[in-house]
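Take a record:
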Amino acid sequence: MSSLPPCPQCGSEYTYEDGYQYVCPECAHEWSKDDAVEAQDDGLKVVDANGNPLQDGDAVTVIKDLKVKGASSVVKVGTKVKNIRLVEGDHNIDCRIDGIGAMKLKSEFVRKA
């Protein structure tokens, strides 16, 4: 099994070393080894709509009406969500909203409370 980091652009696990760089054969993205070390140290970084960094356990406020997929309800503007969890993926906030239940939100639709 390879100890090389996956491609930061497409996530491919088939990266290889070329001198002092890593190369992705699937998307042809190249990045330096220094960038890879910094990316591993940083971990998961999630920012809200205003650019403020978010952490697990933060409280956020919804800044846009959000339709709930598969239901007739809507998460209204100004809804405060407490004790969020950050996760990998497109919807990078995992939370529980009163009256609706567990759901995932995109960080671009919230601001830090």
Remarks:
- The first helix runs from residue 33 to 42.
- The helical segments are 33-42.
- The chain has two domains: 1-39, 59-112.
